[in-house]
User: Fold these one by one.
Assistant:
Number 1:
Amino acid sequence: MGYGNGNDCPPENRAISSASWGEYAQWLVGRRRRFVVREDSMVPTLRSGDTVLAAMGARVQLGDIAIATHPLHPNMLLIKRVQDIFDDGSVYLISDNTHGPNVRDSRHFGVLTASGIIGRVTSRLATAT
Amino acid sequence: MLNNAIALLNAWFPPTEVHAHCDGPCGVYDPSAARITAEAVLSMTKKIVALEEPSDAAGKVAYANTLSRYIAIKEEQAQKTKDDLLILWTDYFKPVHLEAYPDLHDTFWKAAKLCSACKVEVSQQHAEELMAAVEKIHGIFWATKGRQVAWFTAS
């Protein structure tokens, strides 16, 4: 899945912006949620230990970084790039570090239903120290 | 200073973890992965069969594009189903399981053959047989773990 739409996100467009004052304000009023990244499948965009802000319940578009529920492990939250959105709303998620060893994404666990996408990453709050 | 404040905040109030998921040799197996991809094969096969070719030129281009995408998805998902089944067969199942399920090898061999057939052909019958094979493997797999996990499909 995720073929031929020309929506593979080129590396130059993958950068995620640092949190602006507006983002801090959104966070303070509860419109953003804070997440810490674990593991390295989103390298170089995000490294393990980076903290991001996400708009919960927001719609995602091609190229966005989504927060999603793992389809096979419901207690695990994933952070992945949206590579394709199908007519029925299901979403194909891909890693930025697709060639890393043992990286897992929609190439392995398939597409996610729209309800599996729970948020859209809006900014990077802090980098790993 | 801001970074320090955030670092303190993270220490005091740890944020929720999200996984840029990588999978090590964790020993976690689940036939659900094969079920999802086999369902995709069946879905794509049905969509290919149902697709009607329009008569106008613009419609033909869109038709060719859609058909190509459906075929590409069907073939990839069939291959993925095969990969997932082979991992279960060769990595999870042990000789002790073969004693309890003497037709285990035959079941996987036929299921893998069905994956190949679904990849090459446009056969709803074979896609449905593949789903049935994955359901059988689902039953055997969870029985070996002493668990009752109901078979279900997403569609």
Note: The two ends of chain A are 36 Å apart (CA to CA).
Number 2:
Amino acid sequence: MHDAVPQPLEPLTFGHLLKGRSTLPKAKETPLGQIYEGMILLDNNVVRADWRKAKAIVTDTLTKYEATIHTARRWDERALAYPIKGNQRATYFLSYFELPNGHSDELRRALDLNASVLRYLFLAVDEIPEEESDLASAEDDSAHTVDAPPADGPRPTAFDEIDEARESERQRVRDEEDGAKAAAAEREAESAEKSDSDSEPEAEAEAEAKPETEAKPEEAAATTATSDGDSPQES
Amino acid sequence: MPIKKTLPIGSNNCDDPKINYKDLEYLGKYLTPQGQIVSRRRSNFCTQCQKELKQAIKRARHLALLPFVA
């Protein structure tokens, strides 16, 4: 019984937990290290001031940790799906670089502490896409200019939407009233024109008819005289 | 009561080009109106492609390209 020598315990491994689980393929390593695709969100206030400086913030940080930058360009400027550090919009910076093994953590820490970097994503890739070099070289031209990002307005809330709907309803009512007033004014103007055009012939007719009416009292008097004389029935 | 089966998005999706987190138009097809990732039955993907799709959507969400909840 005492001859049984206790054997040392096997080190704990969790391989058995991963046994039946298929994992996504890993990227190949190069002699220098690993090729990474880095997507970095930059604060639009920094980009608005100067795009070259904003680009230099990232590229300097990469080179500080001995990264070899292959391509670096602005991918897009867009509204974020959700606000990050109070920003509604951000500029996406895409870069392909080669980083020596073991420098990844230091680089991540440096980017975490950088205030102009809102968020980043590093992915190990096998190769750099062919079109990337063309796009990056096009941006490196001195003639290439990057448009200033638009202002970072407040995020619309449900209350803003209600206010907007109410305001649009009010505007619609106002437009309808204005249209009705304008139509009424047009109608009045038309009727006034019509009345003017009708009154002119009447005035002419009156002017023509006046001499007749002037002659008429004499005739009327004569007729009354005759009628007075020849009215025995009335008396 | 029979379960109403929803039609898959496309057929034999594994022949599609490589799934990428930057291709938002493509990824958007595999999200519900609430922003959830659709099931394998609905996406018609194989196991591996569904995993790649999930990974790509999660990367896009991390970069605020896609919402977590719409």
Note: The helical segments of chain A are 44-49, 51-64, 104-113, 130-140, 158-229.
